[in-house]
Write a structure and sequence with these properties.
Elements (H helix, E strand, L loop, with lengths): L12 H7 L11 H14 L7 H5 L10
Length: 66
């Protein structure tokens, strides 16, 4: 299942956060692809850019969150 398949309601930060994939920083994960996909999803959901950090930060797991 690709990240592009998630649907995000407009301006609902909790639902947006819950809809995004997590990122743990493992070698097989591509950080650029993750960020591009997340940015695209948040733009489509019309989430204000100043609120993106509140949505994306909780998705960073393990070493990626530090």
């Amino acid at each position: 299942m690709g990240w592009e398949l998630y649907l995000l309601p407009r301006d609902n930060l909790k639902t947006a956060r819950d809809s995004l994939p997590g990122f743990s920083g493992k070698k097989e994960e591509d950080p650029a692809k993750f960020l591009c996909s997340v940015c695209e999803m948040l733009e489509e959901a019309k989430i204000l850019k100043r609120k993106w950090i509140k949505v994306v930060a909780p998705q960073l797991k393990a070493e990626a969150g530090t």
